[in-house]
Write a structure and sequence with these properties.
The strands form four sheets. Strands 8-7-6-9-10-11-12 form a seven-stranded parallel sheet, sandwiched between helices. Strands 14-13-15-16-17-18 form a six-stranded mixed sheet, covered by helices on one side. A five-stranded parallel sheet has the order 2-1-3-4-5. By secondary structure, it is α/β, with parallel strands linked by helices. The chain has 17 helices and 22 strands. About 40% of the residues are buried.
């Protein structure tokens, strides 16, 4: 036994033996599977680390009882079953193993695509029934077909690489990948709407967020090629299963291969009745190698943390070191909010992020890296599935082809301190500036050339309009007509009669249809809903 024999680790879900053996070299390991919340609460106080998969719900109540806990590891990518906020408040590091199942998910996607194209599952069933109906199962070749990859992260890129070996043309959509970056992989980047129109086969590899919920629905399917084939080995809910079933039944969609479902296990999916649909029970990560990889990754990270080091894939790294908390925390909080706003108002794939510090902040330049990373976190968080924090923010940005620059300047435009965040895309750029007043009062003080005094919280509508009578009133009326209350309003302009910017604080979410109505008001140039 090693130096860390006095550390106790609880493994509460099935874990590959390779991971358990790594842990046993340094710790005392108990494997107790199937514990209820009450049972877990009763014993968790004895342990320094907890390792789970998807079966154990690590609730706030469990974490509160974890008096000695230093580390919670999730042997897999998702951490939905762990209350990371409660863990962060208690100073417990939470880590996952996001890369361990990349190849497993990739290969499952390819298997689904080929099985779908060659109609292997129904042919297998038919032959085992004693039938010999070769003409019933004529398939299609993937050679020279167009594969549309929605989400060009790790798995999307690996799928593209393998599809190219089949002589497929690959097109892709990802809001964070520029055309130049895509070209490096031999892939043409395009809008998701254009991808739907040109692809013969569509495979999705995105997170399930507001923007991707039912991304494939009756309306988007109508824009696709007749005979398109659709694959989902990513997340249930990205595809409207009822709409997909109807499209397969009508012949619009030639077939589908689905590994994940909006409700799991699915109670009564309409897809189950269709011969042209292949279904598997969420097997994307279910390979011997993937289970071994995630078990080893999460075990090594556990040991690193117990040694006093950091986890490679930490999902809740402390935002600010304790000794700098009071000084840096307001700036980090402001930078994150500025990043969140910027990511929602810019158009196009981001190519560069530049953070400029001015005024008193110059004196703290050695300690501003975490503020920059918080700005990146704010930019990436609303869209990406993977947890973003001060540990991995720059790495993730770099992986997505986003350049990050950090500069200082003496010019603070009359503010004691000033942070300016500039985001550049293929379509232009936007700059958002903010300042901290007193010890902790944070404000966004400018969007582009338009000044303001905006508390970065809640929901807002940002519009650009022609500075003339009869624009602001009708715009506000649209919200009122839909029972959306306006809590505050600011208008900034540089020169009378030219372009102006309006920010409306609203008390509730503004639906897309209402935003479209606002954009239709004469004089409105653009209008965007954002949450801070």
């Amino acid at each position: 036994m090693g130096f860390f024999v006095n550390y106790n680790v609880l493994v509460s879900d099935p874990l590959a033996e390779e991971g358990i053996e790594i842990l046993r070299q340094f710790c005392t390991v108990d494997v107790k599977v199937g514990l209820s919340e009450d049972e877990l609460v009763a014993i968790i106080g004895e342990y320094d680390a907890l390792i789970v998969r998807s079966g154990t719900e690590v609730t706030a109540r469990v974490i509160e009882a974890a008096e000695k806990m230093k580390y919670i590891g999730r042997a897999g990518a998702g951490v939905d079953n762990i209350d990371t906020d409660a863990a962060t408040r208690k100073g417990i590091i939470v880590a996952n193993a996001p890369e361990g199942n990349t190849l497993a998910a990739t290969e499952h996607t390819m298997a689904m695509m080929l099985a779908l194209a060659r109609r292997i599952p129904p042919a297998n069933i038919s032959l085992k029934k004693g039938e010999w109906k070769r003409s019933k199962f004529i398939g299609v070749e993937m050679n020279e077909k167009i594969l549309g990859v929605v989400g060009f992260g790790r798995i999307g890129r690996e799928v593209a690489k393998r599809a190219q070996s089949f002589n497929m043309r690959v097109v892709a959509y990802d809001p964070f990948i520029t055309p130049e970056r895509g070209a490096q992989f031999g892939v043409e980047m395009m809008s998701v709407a254009d991808l739907f129109k040109v692809a013969d086969v569509i495979t999705v590899h995105t997170p399930l967020i507001k923007e991707t919920m039912h991304l494939i629905n009756a309306e988007s399917i109508a824009t696709m090629k007749d005979g398109v084939r659709i694959i989902n080995c990513a997340r249930g809910g990205i595809i409207d299963e009822n709409a997909l079933a109807a499209a397969v039944a009508s012949g619009k969609v030639a077939g589908a291969a689905i590994d994940v479902f909006e409700e799991e296990p699915p109670a009564d999916s309409p897809l189950f009745t269709l011969d042209n649909v292949i279904v598997t029970p969420h097997l994307g990560a279910s390979t011997v190698e993937a289970q071994k990889n995630v078990a080893e990754s999460i075990a090594h990270q556990c040991i690193d943390v117990l040694k006093g080091g950091a986890a490679k894939y930490v999902v809740n790294a402390p935002m600010i070191p304790p000794e700098l908390q009071d000084t840096i925390e307001p700036y980090a909080r402001l930078a994150e909010k500025m990043g969140r706003l910027a990511s929602q108002v810019v158009d196009g794939a981001i190519t560069k992020v530049e953070v400029t510090y001015a005024g008193d902040l110059i004196e703290m330049r050695q300690n501003l890296k975490m503020v920059t990373r918080m700005a990146i976190k704010g930019i990436l968080d609303p869209i990406l599935q993977m947890p973003i924090n001060i540990v991995n923010a720059e790495f993730v940005a770099r992986e997505r082809g986003i350049a990050v620059a950090e500069t200082t300047t003496e010019e603070s435009h009359g503010f004691k301190n000033l942070i300016s965040l500039t985001i550049r895309t293929a379509k232009g750029e936007e700059t958002i500036s903010g300042s901290v007043f007193g010890k902790s009062r944070v404000r966004i003080v400018a969007i582009g050339e338009f000044t303001m005094d905006l508390i970065p919280a809640g929901s807002i509508v940002i519009s650009r309009h022609i500075d003339k009578p009869g624009v602001i009133g009708p715009t506000a009326t649209v919200l009122g007509r839909h029972n959306i209350n306006i809590g505050g309003m600011q208008v900034g302009r540089v020169k009378a009669g030219e372009e102006a910017l309006m920010v409306l604080n609203v008390d509730s979410e503004v639906p897309d249809a209402v935003m479209e109505e606002m954009r239709g008001v004469p004089g409105i140039i653009s209008a965007t809903f954002a949450t801070l």
